[in-house]
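Now for our target.
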Amino acid sequence: MPSSPTSSSAPSYNKSENRHQDGSHTTHSQHKRSLSTRIVIVVLLYTLVVAAIVSGLQTYRAYQSALQDVQLHFKEIESSYLPSLAAGMWSVDQARVNALLDGIAKMPDIGRLRLQDEIHQTESRQHPLFVKALFSRSFKIVHTEDDEQFVMGELSVDLMDVEIQKNLIETAKSIAITTTITLMLSSLFILFLLRVWIIRHLKNMADYVQKIDLNHLDYELKLERHNSHTKDELDTVVLAINQMRLSLQDDISQRNKLDQELAKHREQLEQLVSERTADLQKKTAQLEAQSQELLQQNQELDAYAHTVAHDLKQPVSNLIAASDLLNTDKLQLSAEKSQSLLASIQNSAKKMHAIIDSLLLLSNIRKNETIPSVSFNTKLSAMEACKQLQDFAQQRGAHIELHEFWPNAYGYEQWVEEIWSNFLSNAIKYGGENPKIELGASLAEPGMVKCWVKDYGKGLSEAQQKAIFHHFVRFDVLAAEGHGLGLSIVKRIAAKLGGKTGYERTDDGGSLFWFTLPASE
């Protein structure tokens, strides 16, 4: 079948749309019959029904005609055979009578004969296929002699419909075969006309609509038809599709103009929103930073107040009590007692001095925003902390061991020594009797050095681990001197230097305090 002109001059369509449309067209053709096939099936079924009705009427008329023809046999018997049969019986010519009965029995549609004479003797003939009588009739056999009539007997005739049924079956077969062939030829001809006149043009229309590109609407739909043909419904559909194409073209043109204007306004709006959002985010970040800073300051102020109220109360009380005793004239104190009171005043002053130094260090850490980080040897800083706590370690009988591997790190060495001192001091205090303490450093996550202090004390519970780095936390008042700002200072120093702090309970039940610093290349 030749293709439509539009198929040879069609625009380039979107490939993804073609794949989708071709797939949907294939699925459509797989699951649905074509229009021409459905029309032919409907016409064929309708024609079969009509043909069946017509064939039934024709068969019925043929059956009625056959019944009338059958009944003519009665007249033939009455006019042709009864006079001869009466003469043969009058003359007692049995051979003639038998010959006449055989002749009647051989007539078409004769099922059974029964001849009864005046003395009630009977002669009968019956067809082999006779089962049931279609029509029955009895004839009086009368012989006329000199205008006088003598009843010779009675002839009973039964007609059957075996031949009629046979003929009707043959007739019905002939009608069915003829009708079927005629319908098949008519259906094929109708299918051919539908495909040539309608279906191929509808397919071209469908292909045009499926492949139409909204960005290229300059190609109109044309069908491969003679220009001289009479305008019909297909031309009306083509005209409607082309008008729809022009309307879409105008709408898309207007839409493109509106899209351009909307895009321009959208860009301006996005730029304005971006600027406003950036400004708002900046202000929000400043407010959050200020809020966090205020929260930390409040927490530190609470810690300062708590520390001053709690930790300074006891040494000040001791100092006042000792000084009052020394200034009392009524008491006669021995030299040893006086020396003891002076030592108590000195220890209380040292304790107050240590607390004030810790508070000043915590305040300096909070105020300093830029830290002068340099590369330093972590082992040297750990050894310096051990040197500072040498007397305290000897008093507690502590045994301190340093590991061999010590990588360099970035930080403020004076503050790092403060971390070592705090961890080491806690290990000496809480490490048990004659504590064994290990110090070391290793490369942890990429770009970080992990420094740690390990002791073999009883370790901390889960609740204690959660609060260990908070302000003013001391878990064993009886076993430890000092105040509760040490580990909170450690946490603040590590954070300022770009690291973290943490606690781990070892497999042997001890404690491992650690902090991280940026690794030095």
In short: The chain is about 60% helix and 15% strand. The chain has two domains: 1-224, 374-521. Residues 233-310 form the longest helix (78 residues). The CA atoms of residues 394 and 434 lie 9 Å apart.
